[in-house]
Amino acid sequence: xxxxxxxxxxxxxxxxxxxxxxAAIQRVIDTTSFIMGPDVRTFEAxxxxxxxxxxxxxxxxxxxxxxxxxxxxxxxxxxVVITVAHTFIATAEAISAVGAKPVFVDIDPATYTLDPAxxxxxxxxxxxxxIPVHIYGQTAxxxxxxxxxxxxxxxxxxxxxxxxxxxxxxxxxxxxADAGCFSFYPGKNLxxxxxxxxxxxxxxPVAEQVRSLRNxxxxxxxxxxxxxxxxxxxxxxxxxxxxxxxHLAAWTTARRHLAARYQMLLADCELVLPAVAPxxxxxxxxxxxxTARRDELLDYLKQAGVEAGVHYPVPLHLQPxxxxxxxxxxxLPVTELVADTCLSLPLYPEMTEAQQDRxxxxxxxxxxxxS
Length: 371
What we know:
CATH architecture of the largest domain: 3-Layer(aba) Sandwich
Structural class: alpha/beta
CATH superfamily of the largest domain: Type I PLP-dependent aspartate aminotransferase-like (Major domain)
Number of helices: 12
């Protein structure tokens, strides 16, 4: 029987860099600097340098990064934040957590990112911020989004949870707006061994406010200028991320190679393949195809030992948690179509071309037998 092909292979990644990871973990244990230890500052400086920004603030998760960013920009009760429904719920949860109202707009039918035309129509006097999501590792149309934001004096916060290494017009995600928010969830392109996140920005006051908010509003150990939160980046996770970061460029190159091969090998199939905006160079967190027979293909692949996945089958505007917003089926037709038809194929830097060929062969076999 053929070996299972995972959606992402963290065991293979660890095996490739095990000495570096083990040394980083041991260093933290040896120094017992478990909370806000030196590795946190070292990683923050390295990731800021990688993204090309002045400031990076490590926090406990990508969700925390979004929430604290909104708070740092003064977004709260009575404000509206525009985003998309084709994303993980954390994007909207952060908006709700600060007391603001999420307003969902439809996505571009080609790139699945926030549609600037829909954005323009959704802006009202109550709108305070925009959170474009760089879904699957492809940056949103930041040129048009920033232009609209500037015209209406709105804050733009990138949800870059899937976009480590992605670019728009040659500039890296995390340096495309007022702030960028990253998740280092284990399966991300740059992943920790638990929850972790970061905010990037060129605005020093925003970074300083997030540094305070993540650490209980402290000015010193027992002096608190404001009510804050326990949302610090764990030192062990920072050390692991610091060990992984030097490999991110090579991993991104490998992802792009595999994505290009998928595009070539599946070009003649009756599938909707990922489209890439001319200004974008995706980081390919996910390679997502679309087919009306998504669920059948998913079952077929799983039975053959290929762990494909679906991101995200129920859009946020139709989630029970957001029923109070009053959205009905059909409100965001492109989002709903993508949710019903999208399928993520295995893609990770350690994936071999032989493994990829097997995935492609199975996809083609399914399409041929069902045609």
